[in-house]
Amino acid sequence: MDEAAAPPDQTDRIVEALTTAIVERRLMPGTKLVEQQLADLFEVSRTLVRQALNRLSRNRLVSLHPRRGAFVTEPSPEEARQVFAVRELLELQLVRQLCAKRRPEHLAQLRRHLAREAQALRQGDVAGRTRLLADFHVLLAQLAGNQVLAEILSDLLARCSLIALMYQSTHSAQASAAEHGELVDAIEAGDARRAVRLMAEHLGHVEAGLQAAAAPRSLAQALGVAA
Question: Are 62 and 73 in contact (CB under 8 A)?
Answer without folding.
Answer: yes
